[in-house]
Amino acid sequence: MSHSTIENSNYHHHQEGEPYLEGNNPEYRAISMEKRKTAPGGGHARWQQTSGPRHLLERFHSLRVDYRDYLAEFFGTFVLIFLGDSVNATNTLFPKAAAAGSWILTCFGWGFALTMALFVSGGISGGHLNPAVTVTAALLRGFPWRKVPGYIFSQMLGGFVGAGFVFATFHSSIHDYDGGIRQVIGDTATAGIFATYPAPNITVGTAFLVETVCTAVLVFCIYGVTDERNMPGTAYAPLSIGFVVTIIGMAIGHQTGFAMNAARDLAPRCFTAAVGYGGEVFSAYDHYAWVPAIAPFFGAVVGGLVYDFFINHPRIAPNEVEEEV
Questions:
Q1: What is each CA distance from 169 to 69, 89, 187, 264, in whole angstroms?
Q2: What is the pTM of this model?
Q3: d(CA 135, CA 148)
Q4: Rounded to whole angstroms, how far apart are CA atoms 238 and 61?
Q5: What CATH code is assigned to 65-310?
Q6: What is the rounded CA–CA span in Å between residue 271 and residue 274?
Q7: Which one of 229, 254, 265, 295 counts the least CB within 10 Å of its CB?
Q8: pLDDT (tens digit, 9 = 90+) per residue, 223-282?
Q9: Residue 71 pLDDT more than 60?
Q10: Do 207 and 294 meet the contact criterion of CB atoms below 8 Å apart?
Q11: What are the domain boundaries of the chain?
Q12: Residue 35 and residue 31: Cα distance in Å, rounded?
């Protein structure tokens, strides 16, 4: 049984008196572009020169700055999936090591995996790490819609690559455990290392409700933790959000594996389909795969709306559009 998570939904906008990170500072980007245009050789011609390490380094630096937000989402999601799925692998492949506390280990493992992922990405991209969080931020927090596709692509790619690294590092143990026969269901099934599958007695309808509620509670708590007019303290936000995921897993997550995130579930699921598990990863348990891919979007929006309607400071409109960076 796998687990999942989600991410700091607050989109960090510049406010007067606060320093910009150079990668998100429009003035920095404008100055950088002006330097490119006025440099010897002029604009695009200068960047077409590839004969020298200095020009290559300058081009790399420019691209890194321009795409810093997306790189942070990619690497943050990669850290989340690599660490979280590795916890699942340890529980599955080494049951004696995990012993009776395997589910507790899973819950805390995913919580701390999210905490580390948020420390990696939160100050750069806002640490969404979840398509549902990104869409909800665009709907309710003024996050630029133009960035949504790039964020979601980065998150899904990070989840896919993270699953790949887990498969590579545990490959020998997986092969020893299942004898080289990749199974989704059965005593030697290992697909649950990478994606979530429901408990046998859970219907698809119940699973959809569980995933929706889990994600709603998660986003509701994320908005509370990151609300500067509530109990400000962004420095401890990654740890607090990690504990939110841990307690959700302990409370009701065992029924579905508390995915709450398409990048945590669908991306690794696609990876498993490509490395020998086949189409059963999508058809198993009455085609359960669509549930953790779709339900989090409903839950995230519901959680955000409930917080804004009942808790958010009355002087702030729930859908207030802040300055784009």
A1: 28, 10, 22, 18
A2: 0.82
A3: 7
A4: 28
A5: 1.20.1080.10
A6: 5
A7: 229
A8: 999 998 888 777 789 999 999 999 999 999 999 999 999 999 999 999 999 999 999 999
A9: yes
A10: no
A11: 65-310
A12: 6
